[in-house]
From TrEMBL:
Protein name per its UniProtKB record: Glucose-1-phosphate thymidylyltransferase
Reaction(s) the record says it catalyses: dTTP + alpha-D-glucose 1-phosphate + H(+) = dTDP-alpha-D-glucose + diphosphate
Function description: Catalyzes the formation of dTDP-glucose, from dTTP and glucose 1-phosphate, as well as its pyrophosphorolysis.
Domain spans labelled Nucleotidyl transferase: 2-236
Database matches in InterPro entries: G1P_thy_trans_s, NTP_transferase_dom, Nucleotide-diphossugar_trans
Biological processes, Gene Ontology terms: hexose metabolic process; polysaccharide biosynthetic process
Gene responsible for this protein: rfbA
Pfam families cross-referenced by the UniProt entry: NTP_transferase
UniProt cross-references to CDD domains, sorted A to Z: G1P_TT_short
Keyword annotations: Magnesium, Metal-binding, Nucleotidyltransferase, Transferase
Species per Swiss-Prot/TrEMBL record: Prauserella cavernicola
E.C. no: 2.7.7.24
GO molecular function: glucose-1-phosphate thymidylyltransferase activity; metal ion binding
């Protein structure tokens, strides 16, 4: 299974913060925002990942992660010159995906919950078309909403419905089979000139090949695309770290726990950052999990 992190966009909602840097490089508590979506793909046991971003942001992202080999990953990069819709990721990443199943995650989404890694790995075993992840919200009229039957099959998809039939907001995490590239190629751009991911999902829905996995109680989903949501995400990560000793999206720890790297390599990565609390945590994890 291949992965894509779509870390593009101009970040205009975060001006002036993003006038000189990429949104994905801004801090969510103790690490760059892009760590969080990348960690989700790692938890799903996906190691071959393409990061798509604006041409101006790619050098910094490449400096941050390199080829990913230090984390046991194979990272490649591609440019999205203009934000032309989420589904364009599958045109840009067509060769990367090839004939494989894939997971696409938006670069400003944060997920966390007990058993999340197991859920992701189980879900990827039988995609059978399109699998979306829903999260219950109290204000569904602000989101894309998925209605499901008792078996979890999608019945309808609505964008910001005036009279929502469900509280399942569609999150920025999508699993697809290999048909998604051709589906994306056949899309007609919206009035805004964008290739909409909802249109991709509706093709699968029309063919009876779409389902939704509900992230219920015990899970957290945050879209860190505004100043307020970034602050909320930082506070959430800080509180978990201080109260429970949990470092959300610690890539080095995840790589170790997933068997992508060994304890010695993990400790070395932590030692490079030994003057920070984050580096000390990584070294401690390496010692504990030896």
């Amino acid at each position: 299974m291949k992965g894509i992190v779509l870390a593009g966009g101009s970040g205009t909602r975060l001006f002036p913060l993003t006038l000189a840097t990429s949104k994905q490089l801004l801090a969510i508590y103790d690490k760059p925002l892009v760590y969080y979506p990348l960690s989700v793909l790692m938890l799903a046991d996906i190691r071959d990942i393409m990061i798509i971003s604006s041409p101006g942001s790619l050098p910094a992202l490449t400096d941050l992660f390199g080829d990913g080999s230090h984390l046991g990953l194979n990272l490649t990069y591609a440019a999205q010159p203009e934000p032309r819709g989420i589904a364009e990721a599958y045109l840009i990443g067509a060769d990367h995906i090839g004939n494989d199943d894939s997971a696409l995650i938006l670069g400003d989404n944060l997920f966390h919950g007990h058993g999340f890694a197991r859920l992701l790995r189980e879900t990827r075993q039988d995609i059978g078309g399109c699998t979306l992840f829903g999260y219950p919200v109290s204000d569904p009229e602000r989101y894309g909403i998925g209605e499901v039957d008792d078996a979890g099959n999608l019945v309808s998809l609505e964008e910001k419905p005036a009279a929502p039939r469900s509280d399942n907001a569609i999150t920025g995490l999508y699993f697809y089979d290999s048909d998604v590239v051709e589906i994306a190629r056949d899309l007609t751009p919206s009035d805004r000139g964008e290739l909409e991911i909802t249109d991709v999902n509706r093709v699968y829905l029309k063919n009876g090949r779409a389902r939704l996995v509900r992230l219920g109680r015990g899970f957290t989903w945050l879209d860190a695309g505004t100043h307020e949501s970034m602050l909320a995400a930082s506070t959430y990560v800080q509180v978990l770290g201080k109260r429970q000793g949990v470092r959300v999206a610690c890539l080095e720890e995840i790589a170790l726990r997933m068997g992508f790297i060994d304890a010695e390599a993990c400790h070395e990565l932590g030692a490079r950052m030994k003057n920070s609390d984050y580096g000390q945590y990584v070294m401690d994890m390496a010692r504990r999990l030896t």
